[in-house]
Amino acid sequence: MPFEAPLYTEGLGQPPVRRYTGPIIDAHTHVEDVANAWLLYRAAQAFGIQVFCGVVRPAVIDALKHEFGESFRPIVRIDHSLIGQPLRFARENVLAICEGRAKGAVAAKFWYAPRFIAETHFRFDNPALRPILATLVDLGMPALVHVADPDCWFERQYSDAARYGTKAAQYEALERTLSALPDLKVQGAHFGGDPEDLDHVRRLMDKYPNYYIDTSATKWIARELSAAPAASRAFVVERADRIVFGSDLVAFGDATPAHYGSRYWVQRWLWEGEGARPSPIPDPCVSDPEGPTVHGLALPDDVLAKLYTGNARRLLGIEI
Ligand SMILES: [Zn+2]
């Protein structure tokens, strides 16, 4: 499929930039089933992505592997429905990780958004997770963790700090686990949940050599990195060995080709382009009447190669 496949770039205004021509691994997507995954797979291919790692239920791994072969790598979604029964919770998830690993799974996904914690009071340092995290250490698999949501969400839907806690409080459980388990590799989703405060991300990376971040949640990452492009570029170059490319695209039934295309378009421009362009992704957190813009950071070639594949190869053990 040609890169400029119009199906995926319709309405984006300008053709995507493609300075980097090597393979790309998308280290963070979500996939429910084969039928919905097809469009995401085609869009990824159109933008030069060779391998997509998808958070899945263990039950659909076989079907996805059958359909997409080595292009698809599963990420086992930790099932929290059994947290009321800690022993069973641990046993079932350890089993799911081991079975997933036998089928090529590269990581396990833990989702601790403030609304989940407010409801369950279950965090990333819960003792029930210990056998699960120990299994990941034994297998050399990272924990992909959703740690925090955007600042603008804390100002709006999470403004009730008594219920949701502050944004800073979201990091307490993460830090406890990072320090208790130095051999556990952690992939902090969405720039570790704090692209608004790169100094904070930098401090965590300095303190915990086992902590990596991914670039997923395109709208959020592009918005925040575009706000101060010089500082963002300096950060990515400085931390080039610990950042993995990911989109957080979700394969869902009503998705349009341009939905997927817009995310990959924005990420390509953000990392490879130079200067500001209007972003095709509507963003309620941007108050500028002109709408959101994405500022190309024009990263050096060696940094792009690490971001797009080198780091994911190392962190997730993916060969391409
Ligand atoms: Zn995600």
Textual characterization of the structure:
With 320 residues, the protein is of the alpha/beta class. It has one domain (6-316): Metal-dependent hydrolases (TIM Barrel, Alpha-Beta Barrel), CATH 3.20.20. 45% of the residues lie in helices and 17% in strands. A 9-stranded parallel sheet has the order 8-7-6-5-4-3-2-1-9. The chain has a two-stranded antiparallel sheet with strand order 10-11. Helix 2 packs parallel to helix 14, helix 4 packs parallel to helix 6 and helix 12 (218-227) runs parallel beside helix 14 (257-272). The structure holds zinc ion. Zinc ion is lined by residues 28, 30, 189, 216, 248.
Which key terms come to mind for this protein?
320 residues; alpha/beta; TIM Barrel; nine-stranded parallel sheet; 15 helices; 45% helix; binds zinc ion
Bound molecules: zinc ion
Helix percentage: 40-55%
How many beta-strand runs?
Answer: 11
What is the CATH T-level topology?
Answer: TIM Barrel
- What low-confidence regions span 5 or more consecutive residues with pLDDT below 50? none
Query: How much strand content do the residues show?
Result: 15-25%
Strand order of the largest sheet: 8-7-6-5-4-3-2-1-9
Describe the global form: globular
Content-based structural category: alpha/beta
Q: Taking Cα atoms only, what radius of gyration do you get, to the nearest Å?
A: 19 Å
In CATH terms, what is the architecture? Answer: Alpha-Beta Barrel
Top CATH class: Alpha Beta
Q: What is the residue-mean pLDDT, rounded to a whole number?
A: 94
Main sheet summary: 9 strands, parallel
What do we call the CATH homologous superfamily?
Metal-dependent hydrolases
- Termini Cα gap: 19 Å
Order of helix and strand elements from N to C terminus: HEHEHEHEHHEHHHEHHEHHEEHEEH
Tally of domains: 1
How many helices? The count is 15
